[in-house]
Amino acid sequence: MYAETLRHIHRLVVEDGLVPGDRLPSERELAERLGVGRSSVREALRALEFLGLIETRRGEGTYLCEVGGHQLIELLAMFLLENERAKADVAEATWLIERLLLELACLRCSEEALERLEKTVHQKPTDFASFFQAVAEGAGNYLLTRIWRALFGFASAFASDRPLADSFYDQLLAAVRKRDPAQAVAVWEAHRPSPLSKQN
């Protein structure tokens, strides 16, 4: 139901001519105008805020955000709105970019970036998001890192990965230390199965 509400909110924004910085109607007004329950409006607004398309200011209301020059977050949002099966595609893209960043980190990781990665791995239990942020920084590709952040945050909104064993992080750290992308990919694929086998 909330996906349909997202479409309605998007149409309302277009019809009202709202631009970044403008205030959205209240939750109650949106529910009345769209003819849906407030819980559906609340879920839809939460999704839009997570995507960075709106911002809630305490005591003031909800405002449209400026999403940036390359419009990546808006593109992802609209992709989901137009295609309910987009979640699987986001999972695929996230997995592929993570694997690529890992390979690049093996080849490019500076001593400073390696120290940050080691520090993250030694904090038990290791947090995957923090670990991979350190990997992405070590990869040295700003655009890929930005794409990964958006994809990972988006994928995390509708799926939660099970915790990974400490051995996963220890083995990946060893591969990065050795600057061995083949070993890193082998560890990666052994612990994080590929989502590329989905049916079209």
Automatic annotation (TrEMBL):
Q: Which InterPro entries match?
A: GntR_C, TF_FadR/GntR_C, Tscrpt_reg_HTH_GntR, WH-like_DNA-bd_sf, WH_DNA-bd_sf
Q: Which residues form a coiled coil?
A: none
Q: Which GO terms describe its molecular function?
A: DNA binding; DNA-binding transcription factor activity
Q: Entry's SUPFAM superfamilies?
A: GntR ligand-binding domain-like, Winged helix' DNA-binding domain
Q: Which residues form the HTH gntR-type domain?
A: 1-67
Which Pfam family is one of this chain's hits?
Answer: GntR
Keywords, comma-separated and alphabetical: DNA-binding, Transcription, Transcription regulation
Q: PANTHER family per the record?
A: TRANSCRIPTIONAL REGULATOR, GNTR FAMILY
What is the name listed in the Swiss-Prot or TrEMBL entry for this protein?
GntR family transcriptional regulator
Give the species this sequence originates from: Geobacillus genomosp. 3
For this protein's source organism, the top of the classification is: Bacteria, Bacillati, Bacillota, Bacilli, Bacillales
